[in-house]
Amino acid sequence: MDIDLMLRVYPYFLEATLITIQLAVLTVVLGLICGALGAAARLSGNKYIRFLGATYVSVIRGTPALIQLFILYYGGSQVGINLDAFEAGVIGLGFNIGAYMTETIRGAIIAVDKGQVEASRTLGMSKSQTLIKVVLPQAARLMIRPLGVNINAQIKATALVSAISVVELTYTAQRYIGSTYKPFEMFFLAGVIYLALIYVTSLLISWFDRKAQIK
Amino acid sequence: MGLDFNVVPEFLDLILIGAMWTIAITLVAGAISLGGGVLFAVIALYGHWLVRYPIKFFAWLFMGTPLLLQLFLIYFGLVQVGIDLPAFVAGVIGLGLHFAVYNSDIIQAGILAVDKGQTEGGRTLGLSQFQTIYKIIVPQALRNTLPPIGNNIIALLKDSALVSVIGVTELIHASQLAISETFRPFEFYITAAVCYYAINLALEAILRKIENNAQIAR
Q1: For the purposes of burial, counting CB atoms within 10 Å of the CB of A81, is it exposed (0-12), middle (13-18) or buried (19 or more)?
Q2: Which domain holds residue A137?
Q3: Does A56 touch chain B (CB under 8 A)?
């Protein structure tokens, strides 16, 4: 292993890590918004809105994220959507993880005991009061852990945008392989950084989960 | 430039060949992920610590890094140590190992969920520990974990798209070849997406059938 070379290039890897972190944060935020809307749609009383939500989840989860990125980035200009690679990456991956988060959020809401709803309705709360004051606070606790799994998957999924030439961690590793012909060293560097990111995120999520649970 | 899906039929053969490769990759990598998953799970639970810890470390490594990076490492990185694998082989091994790690987690939980009396029964009947694990415990564990393993196989189908970046002519790469001649990315990527969706639905139906067949009438 060429340690000198790794010491020489690691600052560029750290720079690229910032882009990876940006991608992860932005796509997770967009994904949470899509997930909340998607879950609301799937649980809606209106069957057309329900159908719309179900279609979103089915189509996005039924096709590879890579092809969704390609359609958006390379195909987008044909239908009047002109995005740069970073924007396409954020929007494409955000919508993608949103479909998975839709199911996570919906699952957590459904998992809240039905008796809770019945009790609060009996106590004279309106439907929206029941949802906001009784169901959602309990569902929120239930969804922290599975959403954490989604978020960790998303950190790894940001590597996909290297295929549409966003200069993030994986792309940087590839670029330095091209110039140094040392694939092992470059992937080792990138791998260690990904592992560190995911480790820290997991710690944060379990800390947050512990804080949020009622003793 | 408007949309014109009439350019697609001309390249249908290419797309279909791509779809075949996608299915082939999914089947071979799926088999590796299942076999590897069982092997890793058994080692992680019963193995000597000298093999158990390396396997656990390897699993941690594979779960904590992107699949794309692993594919690059297997395809380009192994050349550095003198192992030059064809793209298809590298892709299938990478995908297979990646999902073997995820399957192993599921199967471990499945093995632990098998009643302890089964092991005791098997041992009492004179089966060796190895025989008890392979003939009694693992089959029951697999039956109980079929749904989540099925989900992993479907995830594997979608992640097989990543193999295009190391140059296997599966659906995405085939579409890219067609696009390089026609400059119509939207039409061909949508076509490829439709193919993935169709394969996905078919795979789901097959998996559901296998799940139903695997249930023992109790």
Answers
A1: middle
A2: 3-212
A3: no
